[in-house]
Design brief:
alpha/beta; 8 helices; 7 strands; binds NADP nicotinamide-adenine-dinucleotide phosphate; globular; 44% helix; Rossmann fold
């Protein structure tokens, strides 16, 4: 697939970081963009009007089940509307994520925080994906990208909750893949280490909770963190490729551009 025209993209977590970078790029292209974030972003509305993108911003806390039920219905309506334009491809990118609560296993006692991380990182993607698959039944090309993490593939001290949610994403992607939904490709994609507000959070986590902090401070100091706009460009390019989904558990660093 070589053109962005007439694609429909659903994207979560567009207020900052990687999600904002992807949304900004998608809003500058033709097609339809449906976002689910806690805040509506006026800058995206402006970018979409310049880029002739049909933009629907849905305000929702992805950790709130009741609000998410209503948002899923709004998403379905927006998808139904976009499908009347006979898009060449419909895609959903599950980007919103939380690294907190960070603590070693014997101090992980904040039930609300653990629950919120699971809700945002894996429950909401599973739930929204079901609605996406139902709403796009019969579409000729459906693509799902879960923004996972290297943390889902390697245990990291203090990241018990984060690693568990990202590992869950990987397994979930494999299940969707083996179920062979019509015209559907999926990957769970590690995006690399990116200079976003999440990295700031990581660098300010107390050392007693996160002893690996120095590694991330060093990466920032050495200027080796990827920049969000470049990672966004790469992820959107991968999503567009003809062989998208051939590798279900994937990593942006394994691709050439
Ligand atoms: N940065 C990295 O180095 C890195 C590495 C590996 C994987 N990742 C993954 O990449 C994705 C994006 O990360 P990032 O670095 O861009 O993170 P970020 O800067 O912290 O941004 C996270 C986004 O998720 C949204 N979000 C969080 N909780 C939400 C909720 N309850 N409801 C709705 N939206 C919510 C945030 O919105 P609010 O502004 O409303 O909080 C924000 O838009 C995440 O899944 C992360 O795990 C990042």
């Amino acid at each position: 697939m070589s053109t962005h025209e007439n694609t429909v993209t659903v994207l979560t977590g567009c207020t900052k970081g990687l999600g904002l970078a992807m949304a900004t790029q998608l809003a500058a292209q033709a097609g339809s963009l449906i976002t689910l974030s806690r805040l509506v972003m006026p800058a995206l509305t402006e970018a979409a009007s310049k880029g002739q993108t049909r933009l629907t911003q849905i305000a929702v806390d992805l950790g709130d089940g009741q609000a998410l039920e209503a948002a899923a219905q709004q998403m379905r309506q927006a998808i139904a509307q976009a499908l009347t334009q006979k898009p060449t491809s419909v895609r959903i990118i599950h980007n919103a994520g939380l690294v907190h609560p960070v603590a070693p296993a014997d101090r992980q006692t904040d039930w609300e925080a653990i629950n919120m991380a699971f809700n945002v990182n894996i429950t909401a993607p599973i739930f929204l994906n079901a609605h996406f698959l139902q709403a796009t039944e019969g579409a000729p090309d459906r693509r799902i990208m879960l923004i996972s993490s290297g943390a889902g593939r390697n245990g990291t001290h203090g990241w018990d909750v984060y690693c568990a949610t990202k590992a869950a994403m990987d397994r979930y992607a494999e299940v969707v893949d083996v179920e062979k939904h019509a015209n559907t490709r999926i990957s769970s994609m590690a995006p690399g280490v990116i200079d976003t507000p999440m990295q700031e959070t990581i660098r300010t986590t107390p050392l007693d909770k996160f002893p690996n902090r120095q590694r991330f401070e060093d990466m920032k100091a050495q200027g080796v963190l990827a920049q969000a706009p470049e990672t966004a460009r790469r992820l959107l390019a991968i999503l567009q490729r003809d062989d998208y989904g051939r590798t279900v558990i994937d990593d942006v660093r394994n691709h050439t551009f």
